[in-house]
Amino acid sequence: MTKWDLFFKEKITKIFIEKKLILDIGGGLRIDPKRNNRFDPDRAWIIPYLENVDYKIMDYVDKYNPDIVGDIHKMPFADNSLDAVICMAVLEHIENPILATSEIKRVLKPGGYAFLYVPFLYYYHIEEGNYGDYWRFTKDSIKFMFKGLRSLEIEPLRGAVETWIRISPLGKIAILSSLARLVDKITGKSKTNQVSGYNIFVIK
Predict the structure, then answer these.
(1) Distance CA 124, CA 190 (A)
(2) Bridge partners of residue 59, in order along the sequence
(3) Which of 42, 98, 112, 172 is within CB 3.0–4.6 Å of 108 for a Cys-Cys bond?
């Protein structure tokens, strides 16, 4: 398991064990096909944790049967009302990610957790009729958006060579990604800022 996968598993487990009212904006966990547009079987390990939490999915349209239809730019929640927020692969698709992250910070309780994923070097991706593809994020922009919080952890995904493979036509060949990861490690490219994206964990 990669270090970014370990980071994801550790932080998501922490959220589902330590918090009760959890909002998944856009359903990025992909663990409930009844309330989402797709299901990721690799994340089925999360499903047993649902028994002990109040897990809600919010989307800005009702197409995929979310629990709550709402706009991340103006979320329908009171200040300091949510224990945790999950927001994976959403911020690149909205008009104002700075306003959106301000809203996430607003609705989190003091001590609340948020887990996010944002892309940096990643291919153009839209869903016709639902959302466009507006933004990419560096470490600097992440630090700016989440300044003032108690804690901010940033875990990069992939090094420079693996990122290049990922966005090329070769990205579907798993062995090449593994070899590229090895090259990144040997050459030190795994420590550069030329990455696919970032997993983020914050505490308010």
Answers:
(1) 23
(2) 69
(3) 112
**Gyration radius of the chain over CA positions:** 17
Q: How far is CA 57 from the centre of its chain?
A: 14
Mind listing the pLDDT tens digit of every residue in the chain (204 residues)?
Answer: 999 999 999 999 999 999 999 999 999 999 988 888 789 999 999 999 999 999 999 999 888 899 999 999 999 999 999 999 999 999 999 999 999 999 999 999 999 999 999 999 999 999 887 889 999 999 999 999 999 999 999 999 999 999 999 999 888 888 999 999 999 999 999 889 999 999 999 999
Amino acid at 168: S
Alpha-carbon gap, residue 27 to 86, rounded angstroms: 8
Q: Look at residue 143 and give its three-state secondary structure.
A: helix
* Distances 166 to 6, 39, 43, 123, 151 between C-alpha atoms, Å: 20, 21, 21, 9, 30
CB 30 within 8 A of CB 59: no
* Angstrom distances, CA of residue 72 to CA of 17, 64, 145: 25, 16, 15
How far apart are the C-alpha atoms of 100 and 73, rounded to whole Å? 5
> What DSSP state is assigned to residue 71?
B
Q: What is the CATH number of domain 3-159+195-203?
A: 3.40.50.150
Q: Give the global pTM.
A: 0.95
User: At a CB cut-off of 8 Å and minimum separation 6, what does 11 contact?
Assistant: 113, 115, 153, 199, 201
Encoded tokens for 3: 């270090």
